[in-house]
Amino acid sequence: MKLLRTCREVAALVSQREDRELALRERLSLRLHVLICKRCTAWEQHIAFMRQGVDAWKNYKGDGR
Ligand SMILES: [Zn+2]
């Protein structure tokens, strides 16, 4: 498996990370790519933001009505 990924591959990894544990190699290549790619940094932050939103929604108990 090559260490340098394309943006397309990295975007897929970032999405998959929500559903499964990534292998060390995958996490490493993701980190390396994000270091040099602003676009994927933005994408990763977007996903992290979305996840926070989903967590907040899951934890939402409502006000009892
Ligand atoms: Zn990229």
Account of the 3D structure:
By secondary structure, this protein is an all-alpha fold. The protein has one domain (7-57). Helix content is 69%, strand content 0%. It has helices spanning 7-16, 24-36, 38-59. Helix 1 (7-16) packs across helix 2, helix 1 (7-16) packs parallel to helix 3 (38-59) and helix 2 crosses helix 3 (38-59).
Euclidean distance between termini CA atoms: 53 Å
Oligomeric state as shown = single chain
Segments where pLDDT lies below 50 for 5+ residues?
A: none
Q: What's the β-strand tally? A: 0
Bound molecules: zinc ion
Structural class label: mainly alpha
Helix fraction?
A: 55-70%
Radius of gyration: 15 Å
Q: What number is the mean pLDDT? A: 90
Beta-strand content bin: under 5%
How many domain regions?
Answer: 1
